[in-house]
Amino acid sequence: MTRTRVYRDGVLQKEDFPLADVSDFLAEPDTAVWVDLCAPSEADLAELADELGLHRLAVEDAVQEHQRPKLDRYDGHAFLTTYAVRFDEATGRAATYELAAFVTPRALVTVRKDDRFDIDAVVRRWDQATELAKTGVPFLVHGLLDCVVDGHFEAVQALDDEVEALEDLVFEDRPDSSELQRRSFRLRKSLTALRRVVLPMREVISSLMRPDLRLADELTRPYFEDVHDHARQAAEQTEALRELIATVRETQLNLQGNRLNLIMKKVTGWAAVIAVPTAVTGFYGQNVPYPGNGAPSGFWTSTVAILVLSVGLYALFKRRDWL
């Protein structure tokens, strides 16, 4: 699956043309080309790499999975790796989708590891924000990063809502401890995955704004700074969520300990009340006649009384959530 576009003087001229035409468009003045490849092999990238002068190491990184978010600079181009994030509220898990990009003075080449990355959202972002289109490649890079970082921010906000819901569960009158543990574990796991891709974006965008890459000039710098500010906010909120989840877990354990102490206090009080008559009758060895004394009916009566009282105590403790 390959998608292509060419812009001339900020106007979309043609799209979905063959890769063989890329060099022809690049030979024309005032053009910027976008090429998107989905799950290509290294051999698929070889022809395009020769035309654009892409470094062999960057091509290898583009087809390999699980690269860290980074920006590598080579002679004539830069190589970018980033991740889109989507938080599934139904499962409480954060899914990450890897994306690589080659940034050259006249072309942007995006490489998706699979079709889960919504490249159509990036295209819509380009079509809706055309005020930077005349800048060419900076316009394409900004739209791509803006879409990715907005996804990070949305995922962080969704995770924040889940943490608030977890806080409400902690302070319920009768919280479900097993459910709290499962949800807190899922949230910590999702937060770890989120931190791994969100935190490095601050440095990545800062590197893209360096003067030697010629992406952030007087016109485009405010837009890149806006994306950088959103990335910084997402990173700071992610760090705050990490501390908040740890605090929620600590609060849950403290409440469980306090509640257990209260239950032990009540049970111990009842045991002390029962222990006094037990000690007195045991000391005097009282053995008085009772209904059914010396008869089988007395045994069955005492057995039924023991079972009824035991079941009654269990139901009472269960109803008060002592068990």
Write the layout of secondary structure elements.
Elements: E1 2-8, E2 11-15, H1 22-26, E3 31-38, H2 42-52, H3 56-63, E4 70-74, E5 77-88, E6 93-103, E7 107-112, H4 119-128, H5 137-170, H6 177-198, H7 201-208, H8 221-284, H9 296-319
Parallel strand pairs: 3-7
Antiparallel strand pairs: 1-2, 1-3, 4-5, 5-6, 6-7
Helix pairs in contact: 2-3, 4-5, 5-6, 5-8, 6-8, 7-8
How would you describe what is shown here?
The structure is a single chain. The chain is of the alpha+beta class. The chain folds into 2 domains: about 1-255, Beta Polymerase, domain 2 (2-Layer Sandwich), CATH 3.30.460; about 295-323. The protein has 9 helices and 7 strands; from the N terminus they run ββαβααββββαααααα. The protein has helices spanning about 20-25, 40-50, 55-65, 120-130, 135-170, 175-200, 200-210, 220-285, 295-320; strands at about 1-10, 10-15, 30-40, 70-75, 75-90, 95-105, 105-110. A 7-stranded mixed β-sheet has the order 2-1-3-7-6-5-4, sandwiched between helices. The protein starts with a strand and ends with a helix. The mean pLDDT is about 85.
